[in-house]
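Teaching assistant here, posting this on the class forum so everyone can see the example we discussed in section. The complex has two components, and the goal was to see what a joint structure prediction looks like when all of them are supplied at once.
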Amino acid sequence: MNEMLGLYPQWYVPGIGTAWVMGIIGTIHVLASHTSVGAAWLFALLATKSVHENKPEIMVYLKKYGMFLLVFSYIIGSITGPGIWYSVTVASPRGISGLIHNFVWLWASEWVFFFVEVIGVYAMVYLIGKIDNKTYLKLAWSFAVASWATMILIVPILSFMMWPGNDHWFQTGSTFDAAFNLNYFAHLGVRTAFMFAVAGAVGGIIASTLKDRETRIEITRFLSKMGLAGLVLMSFMFMWYTLTLPDNARLIMDTQMMPRYGKVLLVLLTTTALYFMFTAWKPLQLRQSMAGAMTLAIALFGLWPEERSRESMRKPYVAGQYIYSNQFFSRDVPGKGVKSDMPLIKANGVLATDYFVPADLHTITPENQLRAGSLLTHVMCANCHSLEPNGALRPLPALFGYSKEPKMIKAYLDGALYHGMVPYMPKMPLPEDEREAMAVYIASLPGGSKKPASVAINQTEIEAKGVN
Amino acid sequence: MDAATTANMLQTMQDQAGIPSHPLIFQILMVFTWIPHILFVNISLGAALVGLYAFTKRQDPNWQLLSEAMTKVAKVGVSLLVVLGVAPLLFTQTIYDPSWYASNVLSAAWVIGFIFTLTIGYLAWFTFYLKNHGAQAPGWIFWLGVFGLAMFLLDGFIMHVLAYQGLHPEKWLSWYTPGGHVDMSGTAIHAFELPRWGFFMAMSLTVFGAFLIAYGDYFKVRADRAPAYLDFARALGAKIAITGALLQVVLLLWWLIDVPAQVHVWTHPMTWLLAAYLFVLLAAFWLARSNNAGQGYRLLAMSIGMAALVSIFREVLRMAYLHPFNYDILNYKVLWDIPSFALFLFTIVVVGGLMGGFIITLVYKAGRVQGPYEADATVTKLGNGSLASTAIWVVVFIGTGIWIWLRNNG
């Protein structure tokens, strides 16, 4: 058993929580980065077409699109990439640490591709017309493959966050066992397909401004076909993806995510397909504003729900089904020598074992009970729950029905949470006095104006669905 | 927090998963990948400052040309410094995880602010770049550029704070719980060291000055670059570099005085080696001040050498700061993971070497030719190697993945 907890200090963002901060940066990054990878393939395909069919006017489009992408994708994408890293660092330091210490060499390999990709994009844009065609095509195809390699290398980490999918990694600790988890190829397929779809939409922003009529028709139709192919492939890959999810994720997807986002995503998918069909049929009718609106819609109604869903579906874990969202280790990982934190907090609690607790809170007294409860609630709950009554992130007071009864709240802490019976909630085997302090603090939180979404409702749904 | 408790805390905070290779490998990579990062930080900041100053004198054709060129250098430089910064950050998190994560969380709002200020600063700079063409460029764009540079400087300061706070683990608890009350807002900057930050800013002048002299040499073969303009750039570069190196000497002294006595910085050979090298570099710039044509690459190489020494010195300081708390990376638990290490080595040597070499050589050679460039035999071979290595990489990675996936999930 560990002697002390290796927790870090905590960052709390009132109202939206740290999860939304990650979500906002993540949405911007996913849009920019997937566009850049998809556009790299578009560049290579169109450059090949330009050379083989002797159509130098296509290069005019590539130059314009490339300049646009430098800002849209490579600047915003390359800043928000580390930006996600930074936001996860401050929101979930133990989570990111676990990923870094498992995947550091994969990440370092991705950095090599990332570097050649960034110098490559400048070369791609500024050397159009400056170097011979053969060399340009070598550059374009190296660039396309290297761009995709960045995706190939980041998806192992993202899919491992969902779960390893089998017991191998827990026993071996091997990076490749973690990387090629059950979810990996399906996840890679979804993202690869999406990159073509989004590059098709973003490409229209520049294609719609082309002066040459024939080139405009040809490129717009090319983008439409690429976008449609991406959408079709993505639909199949998504079906496979859902089959590779753990039970807890399937449960949350079915009971919470689909009711909330399912219709929006379906409407978006249909609209995007219709948009591509229309632009293939009437390419000259495509306006810059339409392509811009389509891109924005994909970000707001596609990526934002996707980012929020992925974050929710991992619950109660943040990585590898061994690190809980609240930063505690949920289980032993023999292959890595990781020990669960659960026995320690069951025996000694959190206040006496976390280094980042003020000295006067190590022992709970009637005088400090509320402060102790506040600290414990922030540590145990605030990664996933707003503590404000109308907070945007699953507000805790609302989930307890704005109860002012510590006994009612404590009953939940004593039962379902203590024993880890709720599939999407971390187990919290805290000692009696710490549970009491939390209950007193949660009961003291102000009431809100919204209708409560009670814990009981969600539990009923879960019981009805059953969890294996 | 006393030293013994701090030591226990650091040990407990180290990731239980351990590291997948020997800690020295990560340390060496961390130190040496930081060198290109800081060089591009220096070049970008120097280019932005000079680009803006030159803009105010754009009625003179030399200054106007210089402003446009340096605005572009800063534009490219910032995007490269961002990507180059990823590697040292990755390796820092691997072996100094407690310091980096604790420091970041304690100033979390600034960490997030870094992302947004860098984004809007870069967009402002990009707009300045797009409009900064010709002597008739509108005057108001100057302020966009100033805003961009101000954001870059702020971001440099935030990075300095995050690195510096990580050196003081004994203070983390008191910073987190001022007056016994827990502060989770992440809005405070708890510690900074002006001479240390100032040293890196002065270093920007030195490195950029050397870059400007080399810039003059690089374009001397281009008929469309007037020799008078290149002479002007080199002379300006020499002045800037001398100023920067002088400031670095002064700020290094101030920095050393400011370092706590228990770090014993004065007795470390790296301190004296760095100081001596700075004097040598200063002398080299001084000697080349009036006739520096053809010396740009040599002076730039010497500046890169200085950056390497600074990087090593920075690491030596970190080790000394953490020594009283028994934090020694050599004690980090190692669980070797050979396949992923081999993947990295193959990627950096073969793909990085061939594709990176292809692009850099191509850009270098094409840039020295006025008009279209026809690839020579070297570039052709590098191009073939680039394409083959990336394709082979993907096939091997995906192939290995399918085999492991089937074995583990079949």
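For the discussion questions: Chain A has two domains: 17-324, 342-465. The two ends of chain A are 28 Å apart (CA to CA). Think about how each of these relates to the inputs above.
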